[in-house]
Every structure is written in C-alpha cells, then in structure tokens.
Amino acid sequence: MLRTLVLVPIILLGLFCAAGRAQSQAEARQQLLAQVEAGQLQDAVSLGEKAVSQWPDDPDIHHWLGLAYFKLGQFAPARAQLQRARNLNQKDSQARFDLALVCLSQQDYAAAADELQATVKLSPSNALAHILLGRAYLNSNRSVQAIDEFKAALRIDPAIRLGHYHLGFAYASLGRSDEAIAEYRTELKSSGEHPELVYQLGHVLLETGKHQEAIGYLQRASEIDAQNPDVWYNLGKARLLAGHAVQAEIALRKAIALNPKDPSPHYQLARVLDKLGKEDDARAERERFAELKKAQPASAGMATGRDQYQ
C-alpha cells in the first residue's frame, strides 16, 4: 500500500511537468507571432531561434520565425524555416503561400510555382495565390498558364487589386494587344492611376501604332512616376513617331539621365537629332549606342516590369 501511495504523487508530478512544458511551448508560439505582427523582428528572431532549438518539431514556430526573417529581407534563413514548417505540416496552405513569397523574392519561379500549386489545391478560394501563381508562370515564359490563373483569380474575386492588370500584361506578352488594352482599361476604372498600369497601357498603345493616344498615358505616367526611365524612353519614342521631335528630345535625354547605361534611348535620340538637323550630335549618339550595346550582356528570360506582388 505504501508503494502505491508513493507512486501516485510521482505520476501526478510527471503530468504536471508535461502540462507545464506544453503551456510554455504555446506561450512561446503566441509571443513569437505577436512580435512578428508588431514588427519587432529582431526580438522575434532571437525568441524564434531559441524556441526552434527547444521545440524543433513545432511547425508554427518555424513558420513565424521564417516570416520574421522574410520581413527583415533575409531570404535564405526565411526559406529554410518555412521549408521546415511545410515539411512538418504538408497541409498548411499559409506556410506554403509564405514560402512561395520567399521563392518569388529570390526569383526561383519554379519552386514558387510548386508551392502555389499546392496552396490553391489546399485553399481553392485564395485569389491572391492564383495571382502569384500566374506571376510565377509569367516569369517562366508560361503565359498561357498565367492567363488561366489570372482568370481564376478574377472569378473568385472580380475586384482583386491589379487582377485585370496582370491579365493584360500576360496578353501583351503574347502579342494579344487588343485584349491587353481592354484589361488595362478595366483595371484603370477600378484601381485608378497605378503608375505601372498607366505606363503599360501607354506602352501597348504605342506598340499598336496609336501614337497620339499613347502620348497621353505616357505623359501621365511621367507625372506620377518621374523616376522611371522606361516611361521617358517610351514617351520620347511616341513623340518622335507622332512628329514632335523637340519634345521627343527632352523625354529621351531625361531617360538617359535616369539610366545612362541603357543603349536604346541613345538610338532613338540619334533619330531625333537627325530630324532636327543636328548631324554631329546624332553621330555621337549612334556611337554611344554602339558602345553601350556592345558592353551589354545578353538578356535572358522575359521582361516583367516592376509591379508589386500584391
């Protein structure tokens, strides 16, 4: 009988200790998430590193620590922690989504697509996941698949921010200019003058020969995004094609000032100077174009603009 009485307190003590450990783990998890949400990222990293060493099989702790690293711009450790969280809980769609964000930031579009494909299977109503999957496809030159994903996002949420813009950009990448213009105009009505949207609408109008209409959008883009050399380059090109050589020169010189190593504005400026009768200056610009073109590395992949993930 005495032996039984001694064993009962020992068993109860073990249970109390186990409960204490579980509570401590939950508190660490909650505190870590609170620090990440509050932007206390260095504190979150310190706490998270201690927590993962103590509870290495807790997917949430790895997840929140990965988010802290991601918000600090430390993509390699962020990816490692989020991969660990994903491996520990394959059905956590949010961990896969956040891992995809890191992969996109690292321009690893194939890995991002894998995670986003899993995300939309686990959470089919996640419209933003479809948008990001489309972006991953687009950056991998898979424009047809990208279009499908952008359309899926718009079916789920017709008002999703920049959904029509992304769809228009995918159409433009395939040379389907009329469809691109229609999507850009739809986005403009709902989202207003997002600088990249206004620029891309002007750019595709320029590419389809609507020079005067393009000038209006590109001029507006130069007002709301004055530090974008592409805007000034295309504005200069549109003005040249519309017969406004003096204004074209102004825009092209602005493009060169913002991006001196880009050869294209020098080529267009040489054409402008020829029209203005400035033959020596035109010759100098052609020579500069040739120098810069020779020094320019061969491009790979497709141009994707500077639009945000969200």
Q: Can you lay out the helices and strands and say which pair or pack?
A:
Blueprint: H1 2-37, H2 41-54, H3 59-71, H4 75-88, H5 93-105, H6 109-122, H7 127-138, H8 143-156, H9 163-173, H10 177-191, H11 195-207, H12 211-224, H13 229-241, H14 245-258, H15 264-275, H16 279-295
Helix pairs in contact: 1-2, 1-3, 2-3, 3-4, 3-5, 4-5, 5-6, 6-7, 7-8, 8-9, 9-10, 10-11, 11-12, 11-13, 12-13, 13-14, 13-15, 14-15, 15-16
Describe it.
The protein is mainly alpha-helical and 310 residues long. Among the domains are: 70 residues, Serine Threonine Protein Phosphatase 5, Tetratricopeptide repeat; 101 residues, Tetratricopeptide repeat domain (Serine Threonine Protein Phosphatase 5, Tetratricopeptide repeat), CATH 1.25.40. 77% of the residues lie in helices and 0% in strands. Helix 4 packs antiparallel against helix 5. The chain is elongated, with a radius of gyration of 27 Å. The N terminus and C terminus are likely disordered.
Structural class: mainly alpha
Whole-angstrom Rg: 27 Å
Number of strands: 0
Counted by DSSP, the helix tally is 16
Helix coverage percent:
over 70%
Main sheet makeup: none
- Name of the level-1 CATH class of the domain at 194-294: Mainly Alpha
Report the span from N to C terminus: 69 Å
Please provide the ordered H/E string of secondary-structure elements.
HHHHHHHHHHHHHHHH
What is the CATH third-level topology name of the domain at 194-294? Serine Threonine Protein Phosphatase 5, Tetratricopeptide repeat
* Share of β-strand residues: under 5%
Spatial shape: elongated
Low-confidence stretches: 1-23, 299-310
